[in-house]
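Throughout our pipeline, every protein is held as a single compact record rather than as scattered files. Such a record has a labelled line for the sequence and another for the backbone structure tokens. The remainder of this section carries one protein's record, kept here as part of the documentation:
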Amino acid sequence: TTINVTKKRVAIFGAGDVGISTKRALEHDMTANIQMVLFIEDDQRKVGKNIDGIKICSSSQLEVLLKQYLIDELIIATTKLASKRKNEIVDFCLDNKIEVFTVPPLKSWINGQLSTKQLQNVKIEDLLEREQIKLYNEILFKQLNNKTVLVTGAAGSIGSEIVRQLLQYKPKLIVLNDHAETPLHDLKLELEEIGCSNFKLELGDVRNDLFVERIFQEYQPHFVYHAAAYKHVPMMEDSPLEAICTNVGGTKLLADLSIKYGVERFVMISTDKAVNPTNVMGASKRIAEMYVQSLYQNQEIQFQSDLSTSRTKFITTRFGNVLGSNGSVIPRFKKQIEAGGPVTVTHPDITRYFMTIPEACQLVLEAGSMGNGGEIFVFDMGQPVKIADLARKMIKLSGLEPDDDIKIEYSGLRPGEKLYEELLNNAENTLQTYHEKILIAKTRTIEYSSLSIQIDALISPAKKQESVTLVVSAMKQLVPEFISNNSEFEKLDSPKVVTMNKVG
């Protein structure tokens, strides 16, 4: 007996080459139990025509059409959708129990043919991405072509993407430093796979002065991109001495050697958590920023009259959370959903800014190329995203219902965590640059000689594993705006005198 299974009714958004290829792939797939119903198209010139008897309807009527034709699945087969519109379409479909799929980019089709197995459910990353501006930058090419570049933390989420993007500017050599051997080995295999050979691996710790100096001596890098850091907020609350040794000590060592060995540009990767820090991680990055800036100013003072001496341009870049980076919230939610839940969110109101890794790294390279030295560049991160909404949307995208199929649990803020990251780009504290997404932060700078002494007084006890309390207190003196939140270090903050809103 043949079982009559109701065919799924499919609409394809986009009646261009990709849409037509998608339709044909579906029709050739004997296992796909579908009925192709209609095309939906933005381009009004195509509306009213038909392809192989399937008519093309206007996207302005999308919501009506999907309901009228009882569509079960919508396949997005165009790259031209603005992300706001894509979000509206997906929201409508999720509310109306219509599954949404996307077609992978042409380069991943097999021998130029699309296989139906490659159609994917819309991913949350697709919805959070902003309009990508892919710039091939002439200035960067002039600066980097045939030069030697050192990337620290090269195997991490940000470091490895910086490496991928550097390759298009044809440097002579990229020195890849990381202290995590397996990710560094993975990066080596990835680079070899694409036929890249202009790199050297340097496995080791940016805190090790003899190791780091040997790298500068041996390779004489022109550019340093410093992405090595400890980044997990709750872990650094538990390990403040490590945060100081790596995030402050490692940065200081690399910056000092950059001057000694005549590096042209030193680009430090920082974070929005360095702004009014509430945790050890953010404060350690703020101290690293302060050191790099003061070092630049001090170098300018020393070489004022001597124009022949080449100077190192020190540039800092700050941005918020990157989508899908190792250990970030999206991969964690995915795992929790696959396991059947619950999805854990720390607080119903917590929000974060997000940016894709490629976009963040592109802006790092841009800012690094346009800086004159001493600046802290902040990136326009778009709109903040409510993490609870993110969790709900991810559950719906998996074809499940939040609260019914998958529970959301609130676990409470973790040590050092904020509800809202500080907005970096408020007008009083930033200056515009020629790039609309890159701003310059106005920050106070501290005179080098006193800062240098204070930082040494911080690194030394941290290296010797001395009192955590003393080290964190010293951090708070260096960064007065560092006020701990939900952390054992709250007791070190000076009590606030509250006189406002007294009752009676």
Notes: The first strand starts at residue 8 and ends at 13. The longest helix spans residues 280-302. The CA atoms of residues 57 and 65 lie 8 Å apart.
